[in-house]
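Teaching note: in complex prediction, the entire set of molecules is handled at once rather than each chain in isolation. The prompt given to students was simply: 'Predict the structure of this complex.' The entities are:
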Amino acid sequence: MTAFWIIIGYLAVLILLGIASNRVFRGTAVDYFLASRGVGGFMLLMSLFGTTMTAFAMVGSSGESFESGIGVYGMMASWSGIIHSLVFFLIGVKLWSFGKRYGYMTQIQFFRDRLESKRIGLVLFPVLVGMMIPYLLVGIIGLGNAMSGATTGAFPKAFAASNGAVPPWLGMGIVCAVVLLYVFVGGVRSTLWVNAFQNALFMTVGVVALIVIANRLGGPASATKMVAERYPTMLKREFDPKDEPRLQARVAAYEKKLTEWEQGGRQGDKPRDVKPPGIGKLQFLTYAFIPFSVAMFPHLFQYYLTAKSAKSFRLSVIMHPVCILVIWLPCVILGVWATSAVLDGNPVIPPTFTNTNAVLAKLVKDLTGPILGGLTAAGILATNSLDAQFLCLGSMFTNDIVAHHYGQRRFSDRQLVLLGRVFVVGVVVASYLLALARPRGVFELGVWCFAGYASLAPLVIGALYWPRMTKAGAYASILATALAWGWLFRASDYGGDEHFLVWGMMPVAVIIAVGTAALVLVSLTTSPPSARTIAKFFGRHGAQIRAQARGQ
Amino acid sequence: MRKVVVALVILLIVAHQDFWWWNDIEPLVFSFLPVGLAYHALLSVLAAIVWALAVKYCWPRELDVAEHEWADESMSKHQEL
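The expected output is the structure of the full assembly:
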């Protein structure tokens, strides 16, 4: 019950922050969607960091390290520290400058101008929105399950069918309602304030949980020693033959669960496949392409545009790797310790435990008190970017569909804000209903959509740094990327093979190579953009290209 | 200095692929962090330092200047209206 009340307290704070942010709302569309382009360095850091740290940061990182060991930090966190900052520096700042100068509010407005194509929106809109929906659904379903897990036994009579826990349909409904409420009243400013609060919460909880659990296990050295003795593979990146019996036991447990799942009419989530732990060198290297997704996420694009000045990005560029370190390192260490932790002669988590996403919650619940357990549950709920995604979709429907189709001047600011709010409500309700339906394969698709955004990164890099990139090149790149993505998605059994690699590499590396090749080849064989567009986006460099064009 | 910063970023990316202790657990840093994990934690801190140098020496200062011009343009447009 303590956990339940802590979660309720946490959700109440979110609503209060939304209401408070509404008090400084100026009533304009640019304020609702972009906080009047007035966000300073600290808040921009909080919003960019909070948004890039999805539900994966706390739950997934501990779950993945429970399964694969310490290599997860190097592959996912340390790459993100390098690549995210690179993207903020080289792409975020430039996109902000064009947004500020030419008044863009969405990604598609920028691409329309840069590519001199009004129709690019017809291609990009369904791609960007279509890839965001599974990603949104995964977030909503994950939060509903997290709330259900944290409240087990709290309501033995009311929710007897779900072991006394808030059932997932209600948990999802509560989370969606709270997010809708603060996004509706406060717009992007409320999401900024909420992100700052959430970051403070999950960073503190992770560190405190690490310290408390280390003490319960006899100190950090003792906890690591248990792993070195019982499951050494977890402390390196290659499979240790000594761990073969343990792997066999896990495979047997997986096969048993899989058989039960198949015989039970495939109800619920498919059990997670078990693979020998360890990370390939090529996989480790090519994972670098995944964090490039922050170059193309529409909701991050929106946050770039909220910055007050170019200088606002400086803190994000510098501090992002450190923030990642603070949240990921404790979670990865806890996941690794969880594989071998023994208390009073009994394993804290059985070796055959396969629900890796529940590892952190179980570890904290069993080894600490109810207060830290409740705070961890709130921290897990805090690691999501649903608010930014809902608002961004509302902005895209308002600006890219309605305002673009009927003309921006036909609407007053108040009407645009109203439209934005109506679309946000529509998006939240539709997402909730879809999450209730729980489409089969949505988790697998969600992971691949993440890679899909990364695969489109050459498009924005070319648009910003290559004046010769043409409209036809962009269309060809999107098409080639979609085809390569679709082909590899199918080859992975529609995401069913979670460990799918192409010649040992992450599939995203191949898709990016195909998309880039199409972009370059088609751009070079079609007419360059007009001198006006080149001057508009490339300034001095554009002038040189114009001079060369005159010389020809 | 810009070239040094670019070289440092490349070095950071190369240093990330630490195949030299792929299969090592020891030394345990602070008696509990396996070397492969401690190295990548350190790499995150080094990344922050390299990005601080990039911000100091490679920052597109023309944007800081242009920002004021855009503001002036916007002001004069308002005055014309």
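Point out the following to students. Chain A is about 70% helix and 0% strand. Chain A has three domains: 2-239+277-441, 240-272, 466-552.
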